[in-house]
Write a structure and sequence with these properties.
The chain has 426 residues and is of the alpha/beta class. It folds into two domains: 213 residues, UDP-n-acetylglucosamine1-carboxyvinyl-transferase, Chain (Alpha-beta prism); 207 residues, Enolpyruvate transferase domain (UDP-n-acetylglucosamine1-carboxyvinyl-transferase, Chain, Alpha-beta prism), CATH 3.65.10.10. Helix content is 29%, strand content 24%. It has twelve helices and 23 strands. Strand 10, helix 5 and strand 11 form a beta-alpha-beta unit. Helix 1 runs parallel beside helix 2, helix 2 runs parallel beside helix 3 and helix 9 runs parallel beside helix 10. The structure holds shikimate-3-phosphate. Shikimate-3-phosphate binds next to helix 1 and helix 5.
Length: 426
């Protein structure tokens, strides 16, 4: 599928933002492990979350949806069934990595694989701490899927996390719950903290400070209800568009304003954007509304410690930086090279194709704006965030921008193009 985007003179509205991807995955997984039936309200209907549901069903978990409610009959003490099929995690890194942790300490054998992008992404970063806990993994070329996990008795560890990744952190936490003894995680633990926030809701005792996470093993989860707020990483595309299209305004309700997720909004404010965020509820996650009105942007420097809170928004920041006055520099973002695509390379290829200058580093980039964007054929590399970021670029470009393989947006935002059409209607 291709989508053609033209320069837009208008951008306004109040789109409904689909459910948060990270919380949706976790709601399903925690519900699957709990005793009793859990309910996830407003779950994201994207392909990534369906990959998690598919894996859990293969493991014997009953999942049914009625309207905006998803019911999960958890396994409780019963345990998973050995799957008859290979567990296909599709394009979803979160599914594969978190499931590795879930399965490590449970008596089941499973093979996990994924699409052509996922089988190229590193998995040793997850198997390594789990192996230290006593788990049993066999990875392709010691780092990749397809991989086989044979779960069994595992033990708590004291682990220094070297990469600020919520997927790795969550995998260790999920394994720790079923381990013997307690687990302590320290080091780079400042990534998104949805797992830590949701687990107490399911009856799990987990202690978190800004220095460490401590979980005692042998705990059981009890069913509960999770209401999924709108995904701030999805909302980011409309917030970004409203910040670069003169006269634009956008209103968003029911968005997760978890501090570990709003780095993008904070950086954009620093760049001069007119963004107002109001928290309406705080439990179990801060949720609220966002209002954005167009105001010109200036360049900024984004430091390494800010990266985890805006990791998925960096391709969009690159696009916005071309419209800002002055220099924008991002360093410490080497993780972008191992996302659904090499996002630093994908950003550079497409911005250059649009006529922009960008200096690319191993761990980031430098862009001096403002620069004129000229519409062209955009290669998405089948990466949803590249497709959406360059669709926003198309709204401020001369000539038409063609987004190739635009169907990849369905991973996190199936209605992206319908919503884009509504917001740009004159
Ligand atoms: C996610 C964590 C992030 C993020 C991904 C979702 C999660 O990955 O990029 O889209 O739900 O835990 P890392 O934890 O690998 O940075």
């Amino acid at each position: 599928m291709k989508n053609i985007i033209s320069r837009s003179k208008v951008f306004s509205g109040k789109p409904i933002i689909p459910g948060d991807k990270s919380i949706s995955h976790r709601g399903l997984i925690l519900g699957a492990l709990a005793s009793g039936t859990s309910e996830v309200i407003d779950i994201l209907e994207g392909e990534d979350v369906q990959s998690t549901a598919h894996c859990l069903r293969e493991l014997g978990v009953e999942i049914n949806s009625i309207g905006n409610k998803t019911f999960i009959k958890g396994i409780g003490d019963k345990g998973f069934k050995n799957p008859n099929k290979i567990l296909d995690c599709g394009n979803s890194g979160t599914t594969m990595r978190v499931m590795m942790g879930v399965l490590a300490g449970r008596p089941v054998t499973a093979t996990l694989t994924g699409d052509s992008s996922l089988v190229k992404r590193p998995m040793k970063r997850v198997s390594e701490p789990l192996l230290l806990m006593g788990a049993n993994f066999k990875l392709t070329n010691e780092n990749y899927a397809p991989l086989i996990v044979t779960g069994g008795i595992i033990y708590g560890i004291d682990y220094h996390l070297k990469i600020a990744s919520a997927q790795i952190k969550t995998a260790i936490i999920m394994a720790a719950i079923s381990a013997e003894g307690s687990t302590r995680i320290h080091g780079e633990i400042g990534s998104r903290d949805h797992t830590e926030k949701l687990l107490p809701h399911f009856g799990i005792d987990i202690k978190t400070t800004d220095k460490e996470i401590i979980i005692s093993g042998g705990q059981s989860l009890k069913a509960n209800t999770v209401k999924v707020p709108g995904d701030p990483s999805t909302a980011a595309f409309w917030i970004g568009a409203a910040s670069i299209i003169p006269g634009a305004t956008i209103d968003l309700d029911n968005i997760s304003l978890n501090p570990t997720r709003i780095g993008f909004m904070n950086v954009l404010k620093r760049m001069g954007a007119d963004i107002q965020m109001d928290i309406l509820t705080t439990h179990p996650e801060p949720v609220g509304s966002i209002h954005v009105s167009f105001r010109g942007l200036v360049g900024t420097t984004i430091s390494k410690d800010e990266i985890p809170s805006l990791i998925d928004e960096i391709p969009l920041i690159a696009v916005l930086a071309t419209q800002a006055t002055g220099i924008t520099i991002i360093r410490g973002a080497e993780e972008l090279r191992v996302k659904e695509s090499d996002r630093l390379e994908a950003v550079a290829t497409n911005l250059r194709a649009m006529g922009c200058e960008i200096e690319v580093f191993e761990d980031g980039f430098k862009i001096e704006g403002p620069q004129k964007l000229t519409g062209c054929e955009i290669q998405t590399f089948h990466d949803h965030r590249i497709a959406m970021a360059f669709s926003i670029a198309g709204l401020v470009a001369d000539k038409e921008t063609t987004i190739q393989n635009s169907e990849c947006v369905a991973v996190s935002y199936p209605n992206f193009y319908e919503t884009l059409a509504q917001l740009t209607k004159e």
